[in-house]
Amino acid sequence: MGITTTPPEASVLQFAAWQSAADESFWHRLASFKLNTQRLAEHPIPISGFFAPCSHPQVPSHLQLLLESLPPDTADMNDTAVEVHSNRNRLPVPGILYNTNTLESFQALDRQQLMSEATQQIWDDICSGRAEENTDLLNRFLVISYADLKKWTFTYWFAFPGLVMTPPATIASSQPASEVFNKDEAAGILAACTEWRALPSGASSTAFLLHITLNSDVRARPLKDWAIVQQDGGKVVLAFYDPCHLATNPGWPLRNLLALASVRWDVTRVQVLCYREKRGQVDLEHCPVFDVALPSLPEWKEVKDVPAAVGWERNLRGRHGPRIVHLASSMDPIRLAESAADLNLKLMRWRLLPSLDLVRLASTKCLLLGAGTLGCQVARGLMAWGVRHITLIDYGRVAMSNPLRQSLFMHEDSLNGGKLKADAAAENLKRIFPGVNAVGVQMAIPMPGHAVGKDEVAGVLEDCRRLKEMIDEHDVVFLLTDTRESRWLPTLLCANANKIAINAALGFDTYLVMRHGAGPHVTPGSSASAENPRLGCYFCNDVVAPLDSTANRTLDQQCTVTRPGLAPIAAALAVELAVALLHHPQGLLAPADKEASVLENTEHPLGILPHQVRGFVAHFAQIVVMGHAFNKCTACSSIVVMEFRERGMEFVLEVLNRPNYLEDLTGLTELLSATHSMSLEWDDDTEEADDLEL
């Protein structure tokens, strides 16, 4: 290829660099897209940028990224293009986003290779003629980015690939359009441009032809009509929507448009109108017209390789380098808290737990009976799993000794007699995470063995009614109270309503965490079978009815005295058991899994789903236990549930006042009587004694 020198009277055509502007809504949308759709993938993502012709003589039009620039979360990043709706003030431009997982990956991107790939696409579109059909293809851009979603910091770098013409295009003359065209031509251009901008094609085709006939009639035509208008005679002006505001330089989109004119139309001279507006119409005083000399066609066609390209944007310091945007300080604190709270859960779904159902967890309503040591830990564990509806029931007040062991309380909560535990716990949950719907309810739970006086009947019955309503309204009930008998009525109500009940109980250095089985009257078609018998409840191992466990006891027996590390362990297991049960396809009726080796793979993503976990902190050990429902259980057996359904709160009141009533009702009295009347005879085996002597 020969060397062509620039004539001394001509000057090299220089293009004003395009400037980017990413709206805050785009970064929020990118964060959501990264968490929910892209995850660990680093595939190129099709996006759309938007711009409009310059409308102010001192301010250029930027290429903008907006909320709708990214595809929807459900889109396939490899196959689905971005669907956008354009209008005259938002002209779409196709782009590609490379969003990396780490800052190191961002810095390691081969920018030269990415630019070459984008340039290849533009060159192919020019040579094939596709760019004449769709001029947006000439304005392809790319963005590389890294989203630090912990700090809400986004590092990014735009590139607007522009073909480098060798030798460069030159300017023979440059004048405002108002001085280039006569009055009739100017009026025709104004009418033709207005008509073009109003057409649907005018909102998507950012370059067009102005055909000026010999009698000064002007028509706007698409680029593909170049050969036709040449045959018709007259003058042809190449026009493009120019984002630049400078009088002496055209905008960046003209660079690739001139390459198309040289390659496709075999022209060496072309008149270019930089279309700019004022109040929504072309402003001929603000629109420069350049008479451009192009390289000869053979020199371009002999080039087998793709021309070089430039276009990496400079940062705010005027240097070649990425830009950084910090959004943490500008975001609403509650929205920040919600995004941060869900971050760990959404990261789980990327690789470790794709089946995690965050929607179900967020909509699950949990009722915590007890806002003490266990209740505080369970509430915090549930929030960490994404549960957003938590109700706490407790009758007590925050004591001076509580804040050390009960994680939702501060010393201030125990002053002046102490705040109500349920209210203080709910209030502090909201302080930890404003997005939680936490409610505290002060209420005593009626208990067997605690007789009810005549003056107390109305209040106790009201407590029973309220407790039943709340259990019916919630999905999961946690039994976390201090005494055994306080768990009886909630267990009965859960069995009656077929609610998930998770029980956690503490000894000094032992704990029990278990899930109750379904009630004896499950829905038709879902009843337990011989192969999958109904699992027991907290009271199924008892052969006596629950009684008053606090009477005639010393202080250490009245309080829950445990090793400090016990409650967090048991509470965490209770939460994990509930979450696993919510993800099991059979839910409440899920069979109990046996203990498995830690080296074995589990069937379910969240691991085995046991019935009971019994822990022994003194031995740093725990075992998995399964127990079937007892047909004489004082809380969940069929006869007890049926009696409650028939007699309602009258039945509950009789249980509270008659300590032996449940034993009589279920047949435990007869069973115990028969056991006590049995006579056992011991056989003195002399042979065994002789063996021992040996």
From TrEMBL:
Keyword annotations from UniProtKB, A to Z: Autophagy, Cytoplasm, Protein transport, Transport, Ubl conjugation pathway
Keyword DNA-binding on entry: no
Boundaries of every THIF-type NAD/FAD binding fold domain copy: 348-591
Residue ranges constituting the Ubiquitin-like modifier-activating enzyme Atg7 N-terminal domain according to the UniProt record: 13-331
Pfam families reported in the protein's UniProt record: ATG7_N, ThiF
Record's subcellular location: Cytoplasm; Preautophagosomal structure
Entry keyword Transport: yes
Quaternary structure and partners: Homodimer.
Family the entry assigns: Belongs to the ATG7 family.
Entry function: E1-like activating enzyme involved in the 2 ubiquitin-like systems required for autophagy.
Name of protein: Ubiquitin-like modifier-activating enzyme ATG7
Taxonomic source organism: Sphagnum jensenii
